[in-house]
Design a protein that fits this description.
With 209 residues, the chain is an all-alpha fold. The termini are far apart. It contains nine helices and no strands. The longest helix has 29 residues.
């Protein structure tokens, strides 16, 4: 049976997705500054004109690639969270998955660091990267609320926000240290620390009404 023809919007979405995948591949191999839009377009099987009809700047391609990577991590973290109904195991599973993933495939995280170093000196990029980077923090905040409900306790919104920020920053910092000196962040360190922090704080909260 012949496949239905794609609409113009569907074709554009397919082209954009292919360019983002190609950009992630080329950036991972060459780094942000060494990668060229010509190579990204050629690697995806499109012209440079097709690339520029979807993205104005090379930075926009990297932002899109990072956004996709963040979305993939968020989906994995949500899956790990659903595998258990107690915060001790949930926090450990998520933290262990993060450290294992960064160790096995560091290039996407190194690209994030590269863009971070570039973006903090550029107002437009800094704001856009900050927005995309809040996804994981917001997810952790939501998880803290859900974990509290599972334990039958009440977690104030400000505390959930603070914990989301702490776990997000702790994960980034430990990943940076791990890639520089693996002995400084042994397997299980982030998982153990996260589970202890979350478990201890939740147990001190008042029972829900």
């Amino acid at each position: 049976m012949p496949q239905p023809r794609l609409t113009r919007d569907e074709k554009r979405a397919e082209t954009r997705a292919a360019l983002v995948r190609s950009a992630a591949d080329v950036f991972a191999r060459r780094g942000f500054h060494a990668a060229s839009v010509d190579e990204i377009a050629e690697n995806a099987g499109f012209s440079v004109g097709a690339l520029y009809s979807n993205f104005e700047r090379k930075e926009d391609l990297l932002l899109a690639a990072i956004e996709q990577n963040v979305s993939d991590w968020a989906r994995l973290f949500a899956e790990r969270f659903r595998e258990s109904d107690n915060i001790h195991d949930q926090a450990r599973s998520i933290a262990d998955a993060w450290i294992a993933g960064v160790t096995a495939e560091p290039e996407p995280f190194l690209l994030w660091i590269e863009l971070w170093a570039y973006a903090v000196r550029n107002d437009r990029l800094r704001d856009e990267l900050a927005v995309r980077s809040r996804t994981i923090r917001d997810l952790f905040t939501s998880m803290m609320h859900e974990a509290a409900a599972q334990m039958g306790v009440t977690m104030p919104d400000d505390l959930a926000d603070e914990l989301g920020a702490v776990f997000d920053a702790l994960g980034l910092g430990l990943a940076i240290r791990r890639l520089l000196d693996q002995d400084a962040v042994p397997d299980g360190l982030f998982g153990t620390a996260s589970s202890r922090i979350a478990d201890a704080l939740l147990r001190d909260l008042p029972a829900a009404d």
